[in-house]
Amino acid sequence: MPNPGLRGFDKLRYNLIHVDMIVGFGAFSCLLLDPLKNEYLYMRVAELHNTTKKVLSDCTANNASNIDQIVADEVSQWTLYLNLSMFLPACVAAILITSWSDKVGRKVTMCISLSGMLLHSILLAIIVKLHLPIPWLLVSNFAAGLGGYYMALLMQGTAYLSDITLEEKRGFRFAILEASMGVGGGVAGICSGYWIEAQGFFNPVLSTMIINISSLLLVPLLLNPQKIKKENKLKEEKESVGIEPINREGSGPEITDARRTSVDSAFSDVTIASKNFGSFVENADLNENPETKPKHNKKYNVFEILRRVWHVYSSEFSECDVCNLTNGDVTIMCRLSKCEHGGGWYVGRIWRLWFYVLSYDLMMYVTVGCMVFQTIYFLSKPLCFTPVLVGAQLAVKFSVLALSPVVIVVMQKFLKMSAHFIILVGLLGLSGFCFVMSFAHVLHDPLVFIATSLTLFCNPAKPFIQAKISSLASKYEQGAVFAVVSCTEILMFLVATLSFLTLYPATLSIYHGFTWLYGAGVALIPCVLILVISIADKRRDRLTVEIGETKPLLS
């Protein structure tokens, strides 16, 4: 049975078009618009108070005016309203769209999110060009939220990678996806400050429209996960039965009839072995082709989408649409095994899932909270950053994010760190970043960039938490499991916006860096949750060894 592989246009698509490119373009678009909107809003509010940029940037002791404080407070309020107008609809859209991708495919739902981002760019360009009143920004943000915005796009990309990668390789592959986001964000950070100063706001917004259109055109060119998975599976099966790779150039082993017979026999054994799981399932219809389309017995509507999402987070049994595995179809024997798509029993899945999701959400709460007020923090006294310095800080932040795969290789290959330990180091790095940044108003510019460089250690935590969450669901539950992650991440945007933008102006009279200290403290809470999971996993592994099992029930 020869390996057909990928040929022609499919091979070209596989080599040139990757989901990382789409995520990177989306990051460039969003992270160019976010500081741009903040600075545009800052300028418009200043105009309402008949002040100028020169007055706002005057940080000398001779400037006794408090107009900067008034402008900063109003910008904080408007930023709160803008984020609410975007993230409230995005919260609902993300959970429905991401879970729906299990039925219609990842590429369809990616197009929905990208269309919302494109509409957002078009409306924002009109607002900037016509100098429309500030409330019109609420309309553009609402349009972006209807498609789930960038968070939904990122989770759909993560689910797409879950479809084509092995469980043990997902952490590193997710880190590469995050790195692509870092590259896009870093380029946007470098460009934004200089671009705004040189050409104003309209041309940068226009560029995001072009980027979003390009991303939409790339999505249909993505290779279907079934084709990638099929080729990877064929390669793995050959390696598992000890078949040497065939050199099609003629330098490899000679292909004889005996060798062909051996290959066919080996693949027959693999096929028979893959069907053994069916003996533990009552009335299961297992097909030897693992990429058979799922069998949906129920109408796939909104209620079915929500039911599947609820099932993932409330049951220790993982459903598989291909093998027709449902909670009522399994026997007690099935508790000791899983099907080839990850369906079956996951002992302790429920509380582990919620602990991972809560840890992820608290991490995103601190990350987003710092992001929503840091532009105001940098532009206001005593730092008084220029747009160039604001862009430089963003460029450093996302350039460091692009180094995440290198950091992971060092941690795993050289330092031999486990996944849980990498997550703990990342959470401590996030807390350290906030703690050091709390003193930036004292030492000014240098400490801002020193603190930003500490995010080098916290960036690997996010993809490894995502990989752990993905490992607790079957292949046909990836959309449902990441739907909740996407929804709660958007909720964290809302909660972080409310709390940080309320806390920052309220504590300026107490201590200018108090909000950073608050973030440092919150970042320590998920450390406790990850430690609990790590201890439980080690205890489970020890008990597994004691009872003589060679493989734990929960991977």
Which range best describes the helical content: under 10%, 10-25%, 25-40%, 40-55%, 55-70% or over 70%?
over 70%
Q: Strand sequence of the main sheet, in spatial order?
A: 1-2
Structural class: mainly alpha
Tally of DSSP β-strands: 2
CATH fold description: Growth Hormone, Chain: A
Mean pLDDT: 78
The CATH architecture is Up-down Bundle
- Give the overall shape: globular
Q: What's the main sheet like?
A: 2 strands, antiparallel
Sequence stretches where pLDDT stays below 50 over 5 or more residues:
242-297, 328-336, 550-555
Amount of beta strand: under 5%
Q: Quick one: CATH class?
A: Mainly Alpha
Order of helices and strands: HHHHHHHHHHHHEEHHHHHHHHHHH
**End-to-end C-alpha gap:** 31 Å
Query: What is the tally of helical segments?
Result: 23
CATH superfamily: MFS general substrate transporter like domains
Tally of discrete structural domains: 1
How big is the Rg? 26 Å
Walk me through what this model shows.
This protein has 23 helices and 2 strands. It is mainly alpha-helical and 555 residues long. The chain has a single domain (8-228, 348-545), classed as MFS general substrate transporter like domains (Growth Hormone, Chain: A), CATH 1.20.1250.20. A two-stranded antiparallel ribbon has the order 1-2. Residues 242-297, 328-336 and 550-555 have low confidence and may be disordered.
Task: Provide a quick synopsis of the model.
The protein has 555 residues and is mostly helical. The protein has helices spanning 8-16, 19-48, 53-56, 67-104, 106-130, 136-145, 149-164, 170-199, 202-218, 225-240, 257-275, 302-314, 349-379, 387-401, 404-414, 419-437, 440-443, 445-453, 455-458, 461-471, 478-506, 514-522, 525-546; strands at 317-318, 344-345.
